[in-house]
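Renewal narrative, Specific Aim 1. Our central claim is that a sequence can be written position by position from structural information alone. The example that follows is taken directly from our test logs and has not been curated for this report. It begins with the structure tokens describing the chain, in the order in which they were read.
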């Protein structure tokens, strides 16, 4: 049997603007992960068991554009496998789906690694990253590539579309509380809506994206120096820009406000927006208080994570 695991992720700064070439910062979230086991099967076919999404099926019974089927079929195609081997594939996940925590990328990364290792054609990280990006494009339209990068390398990433991967140092570890609105919101839609805004007035919106890029650039320096208070202010500013892009929602704004009110140093939505998750920067001793305040304000789930 071959197994592989991939973490979730959060975007700290720069979502949406990153699609237009601006820098963004993202970090892995190790508390949540996708785990994949691949083993030979005594029955004929490729049998997929993914209890979290209520899926139990043979590969050929899935529509070809099904996210899991498209990963397996593309890997078989790339490996020139014929006939297909008989396999049992088990996929379990603790990452909420469509909530900005990178669940899709994590499934692809873990499945790709487990399957290619099992088939004796393991891929390098670079190949896993490039393959996952191609799969993300099938399902998300025009992704920047930030999700697949941070999930593949499982390290903090300063990401600029089309540029070599840069990781960054964390001067002083900091604590983030993640709050889930429980509303699943497809990133494709919010990205499409921001594109419409951009098409309506490119000059204005490119200016907004540039301002976000400056925030990401400053945030990287602040993180490297360990100036946490300033980091909170930058988060607040980034959230204002995301509101302007219409990708926040009453629920996200409510959680962001609740976190600030409970003593967070700053807070913003994280990921595609409209639903999904928000993040709050907190002093470690305030993490539980902010987490509780988020739950009282309606968060369906909270995660406390350290960025180190
Ligand atoms: O919703 P998520 O966490 O997959 O994040 C999407 C981030 C965007 O910047 C909105 C889109 C992208 O492809 O970078």
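The sequence written for that structure reads:
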């Amino acid at each position: 049997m071959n197994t592989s695991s991939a973490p979730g992720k959060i975007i700290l700064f720069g979502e949406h603007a990153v699609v237009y070439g601006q820098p963004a910062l993202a970090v892995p979230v190790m508390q949540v992960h996708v785990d994949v086991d691949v083993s030979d099967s005594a029955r004929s076919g490729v049998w997929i068991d993914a209890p979290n999404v209520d899926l139990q099926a043979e590969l050929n019974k899935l529509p070809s554009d099904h996210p899991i089927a498209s990963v397996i079929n593309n890997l078989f195609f790339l490996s020139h496998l014929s006939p297909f081997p008989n396999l049992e594939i088990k996929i379990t996940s603790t990452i909420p789906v469509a909530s900005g925590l990178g669940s899709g990328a994590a499934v692809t990364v873990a499945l790709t690694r487990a399957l290619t290792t099992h088939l004796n054609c393991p891929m390098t990280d670079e190949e896993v990253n490039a393959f996952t990006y191609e799969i993300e494009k099938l399902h998300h339209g025009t992704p920047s590539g930030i999700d697949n990068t941070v999930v593949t390398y499982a390290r903090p990433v300063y990401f600029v579309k089309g540029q070599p991967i840069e990781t960054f140092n964390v001067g002083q570890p900091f604590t983030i509380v993640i709050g889930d609105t429980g509303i699943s919101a497809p990133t494709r839609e919010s990205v499409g809506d921001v594109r419409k805004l951009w098409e309506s007035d490119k000059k204005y919106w490119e200016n907004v994206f540039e301002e976000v890029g400056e925030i990401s650039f400053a945030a990287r320096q602040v993180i490297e120096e360990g100036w946490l208070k300033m980091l909170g202010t930058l988060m607040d500013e980034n959230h204002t820009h995301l509101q302007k892009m219409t990708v926040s929602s009453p629920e996200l704004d409510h959680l962001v406000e609740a976190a600030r009110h409970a003593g967070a140093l700053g807070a913003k939505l994280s990921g595609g927006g409209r639903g999904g998750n928000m993040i709050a920067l907190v002093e470690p001793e305030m993490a539980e208080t902010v987490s509780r305040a988020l739950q009282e304000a309606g968060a369906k789930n909270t995660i406390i994570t350290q960025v180190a």
